[in-house]
């Protein structure tokens, strides 16, 4: 499958996760899901002050945190573990006809650049008749946003009986305002052959640090 980022094969023999990988690789549904919320007040205020899309901003922050999280860079390809040098994201966009489109957003270092390009991509895809738009390789994060309601849990569709490359699955819910703070419901699914709960913790910790960087 075509990818945008370079990759390095991680030899299984002697790998610190070798036994764990071989164990969970036999599962027909190897993902574990965590449903949580993240306070995004600094990022939210920054977006309001600079006229940026809040939803694009939290997707950018998520991708930035994932790119700094070793286990979220790992994928499974032809039975081998590979580590990508970077990640983009693919998210669902609601088109003008109320159908969804899976849409690639290239990562950019600066939030402002990402939001500018992202707005152009969304405007184009909203009028598209295609289900898939842009790059759809395994060097992505799969995201979806349900902005109409909050949630306490979310599960994703999956196929049984074929190798899953382990692309992380991330869902967002409606923002909640409590005590002058802004909270984002998140559902995060990771392939258990590639990551454990501790690595989920490290990713969320990194995401918190990214968000804090937008504090005034």
TrEMBL record:
It comes from the Bacteria. Pfam families: CAT. InterPro entries: CAT-like_dom_sf, Cmp_AcTrfase. This is Chloramphenicol acetyltransferase. It comes from Pontibacter aquaedesilientis. The lineage of its organism: Bacteria, Pseudomonadati, Bacteroidota, Cytophagia, Cytophagales.
